[in-house]
């Protein structure tokens, strides 16, 4: 019997096949642990270097002196260890140590985020914004590319939590940090950017629904990575009537069913009543043991914010959001999002 025959026969044996699969899993887990340890070591090393330089500069309290020290140290380190210790790299390490002086926090983050994540986060000036993106990156396991995309789309300014007073935001982010539990305030966003669907100028509600399903991966990334798609045109029956919900999702982090209704035109107050009926039906017929009450998102082409505020939706579990099928010019979009964020914050 040849070696090849022995190998094939062995793989056909269920016991041997299970053994091979178990070993493969052990190797993958080992590789992941090694990668995590290496990344953690690098992040902690760079933090330690930044802290040591910062401590030296604080003793002198002179900016010009600090620049010269970093320039000199960078030249020596670059000569010995390569370009990873350039002047700009050392300044990034110093900023990291300044922004996060607590070693315990740094040690935790180092096991979840890469140095490339840290560099991007440290460029964010506002503390609340930075904390939000750091926590979301950890919990939703964003890649570096996804973190950049979320920043470019001004995700924080589009979340419900951004409309709250600063102390409320700080409290919610601290709770999120401790529990790792996502809430609707952190998940829901407005507007939703659906520019990836390539819709024509004129389209129907059915076209919009089909386009979402054709690009379900991108749609879920826009909603949040914990969403799981369950059904399209979910049938909800009573004795005498059938109704159909456009889209039904489940959010693993919140442990809730999420009903989504699409509206081609402006949001109207009667849409609230329709969604309330859907949520009550889901609560009675689809909610499983251990799940929270279902919540709903009404995605509409336009909405009058004052009209929405009169409905006092805070305790209803219903979120109204506008969707954009084309991303506005970046400058205009950022200006408008920042303006809406300030207005919501002032109103709150």
SSE order and pairing:
Blueprint: H1 3-12, H2 14-60, H3 63-81, H4 87-99, H5 103-110, H6 115-121, H7 127-140, H8 144-152, H9 155-158, H10 166-179, H11 184-187, E1 192-193, H12 205-214, H13 216-223, E2 227-237, E3 242-251, E4 256-266, H14 270-285, E5 295-302, H15 305-309, E6 318-324, H16 330-347
Parallel strand pairs: 1-6, 4-5, 5-6
Antiparallel strand pairs: 2-3, 3-4
Helix pairs in contact: 2-3, 2-4, 2-5, 7-10, 12-13
Strand content: 5-15%
Q: How many beta-strand segments?
A: 6
> Judging from the principal axes of the Cα atoms, what is the shape?
globular
How many DSSP helices?
Answer: 16
Distance between the termini: 79 Å
N-to-C SSE string, H for helix and E for strand? HHHHHHHHHHHEHHEEEHEHEH
Mean of residue pLDDT?
A: 85
Radius of gyration: 25 Å
Question: Helix coverage percent of residues?
Answer: 55-70%
Low-confidence residue ranges? none
Classify the secondary structure makeup into a structural class.
alpha/beta
Largest sheet: 6 strands, mixed
The spatial strand order of the largest sheet comes to: 1-6-5-4-3-2
Structure overview:
- By secondary structure, the chain is of the alpha/beta class.
- The chain is 59% helix and 14% strand.
- Strands 1-6-5-4-3-2 form a six-stranded mixed sheet, with helices on both faces.
- Helix 7 packs parallel to helix 10 and helix 12 packs across helix 13.
- It starts with a helix and ends with a helix.
């Amino acid at each position: 019997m040849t070696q090849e025959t022995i190998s094939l026969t062995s793989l056909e044996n269920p016991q041997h096949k299970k053994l091979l699969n178990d070993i493969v899993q052990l190797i993958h887990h080992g590789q992941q642990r090694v990668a995590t340890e290496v990344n953690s070591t690098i992040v902690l090393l760079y933090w330690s270097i930044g802290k040591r330089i910062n401590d030296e500069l604080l003793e002198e309290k002179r900016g010009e002196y600090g620049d010269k020290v970093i320039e000199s140290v960078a030249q020596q380190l670059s000569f010995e260890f390569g370009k990873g210790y350039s002047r700009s790299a050392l300044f990034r390490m110093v900023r990291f140590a300044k922004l996060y002086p607590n070693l315990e926090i740094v040690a935790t983050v180092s096991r979840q985020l890469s140095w490339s994540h840290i560099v991007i986060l440290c460029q964010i000036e506002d503390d609340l914004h930075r904390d939000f993106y750091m926590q979301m990156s950890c919990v939703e396991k964003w890649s570096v590319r996804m973190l950049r995309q979320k920043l470019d789309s001004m995700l924080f300014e589009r979340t419900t939590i951004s409309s709250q007073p600063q102390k409320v935001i700080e409290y919610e982010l601290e709770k999120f940090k401790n529990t790792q539990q996502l809430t609707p305030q952190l998940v829901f966003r407005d507007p939703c950017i659906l520019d990836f669907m390539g819709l024509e100028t004129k389209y129907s509600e059915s076209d919009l629904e089909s386009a979402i399903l054709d690009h379900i991966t991108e749609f879920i990334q826009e909603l949040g990575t914990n969403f799981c798609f369950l059904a399209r045109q979910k049938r909800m029956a009573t004795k005498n009537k059938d109704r159909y919900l456009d889209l039904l999702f489940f959010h693993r982090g919140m442990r809730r069913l999420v009903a989504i209704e699409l509206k081609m035109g402006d949001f109207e107050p009667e849409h609230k009543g329709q969604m309330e009926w859907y949520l009550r039906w889901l609560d009675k017929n689809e909610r499983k043991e251990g799940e929270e009450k279902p919540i709903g998102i009404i995605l509409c082409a336009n909405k009058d914010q004052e009209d929405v505020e009169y409905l006092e939706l805070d305790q209803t579990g219903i979120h109204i959001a506008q969707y954009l099928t084309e991303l506005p010019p970046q400058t205009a979009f950022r200006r408008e999002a920042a303006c809406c964020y300030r207005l919501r914050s002032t109103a709150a």
